[in-house]
Specification:
Blueprint (H helix, E strand, L loop, with lengths): L3 E5 L5 H11 L4 E4 L9 E6 L15 E4 L18 E3 L3 H19 L2 H9 L15 E5 L3 H12 L3 E6 L9 E4 L4 H6 L3 E4 L13 H5 L5 E5 L8 H10 L2 E6 L19 E3 L9 H16 L15
Parallel strand pairs: 1-2, 1-3, 3-4, 4-5, 6-7, 6-9, 7-8, 9-10, 10-11, 11-12
Helix pairs in contact: 1-8, 2-4
Amino acid sequence: MTGTLVFYSEFDDFDQWKRLLLSEIPTLDIQQASAVTAPEKVRYALVWKPPEHFFQRWPNLELVINLGAGVDALVGRCDLSNIPVTRLSDPNMARMMAGYVLFAVLRYARDIPFFEQMQKQARWQYRHPRAAEEIRVGIMGLGELGGTTAQEVARQGFSVVGWSRTAKQIDGVECHHGMASLNEFLSRSDILVIMLPSTPETRGLLNDQRLAALPHVANLINVSRGDIVDEPALIASLSSGQIGGATLDVFAQEPLPESHPLWSMENVLITPHLASVALPGSAAKQIAANIQRVNDKQPPLHCVDLNRGY
């Protein structure tokens, strides 16, 4: 196989990715972006949040592979056109996401934040558990990760309602779609899980009015993108008690600034954007298969439409 794969990520381990990709395609030349001396030989790019004008450096680029499921960092770029862009579609990523969401849902369903506060006060305070089917979990976004997560939460006995922009059918999940049904969906979500892609249509979608549509003291879990939620409105809802608690893995600005008020809110759990990440051991085969397809003049799999944002 001829050509070079250029790698760029400030978060991922280049040596690990190189070793695993070479085990799949031993003849592939793999280089970090900063080390490339022959840009005309670059045919493939494996990237996560590359800087502006990054793709202009590679005149013969044939394939861009995004190191994750969300491609919002590649949308609207002036240096990326007419080049296939693929995202990772790794079952292990879906399982990882479903596991994180299930942890967060169970934490609220079993009132663990309440018991955490009681522990701080050295108080033995009983609170009777609720039946899972009495708790309505709303999954907002029913793509590959959202659909898998919705099924896993439903498997645990929760009443799961899903919402997406277009119609979906998922066993065990009551599915709604379209903006006309959004407020009704929100009103039936005791625990709201946000799993939408970041697009011009979804950014700021959960504003103060839509957060107010949630049941009083509902809980919110965001594992998609921070810009889907109006953060000042979320903070106000958390402060007033309209939203009882939030588990947040994503934020409008990352890393979350030390001075941000979310850090000090006792009803908020913060994690640093790790609900689901690319696992080299399982994703390398998919990446290698797409590189081989391009090398064989076949269209790659798992392409995304940058005009839609997913």
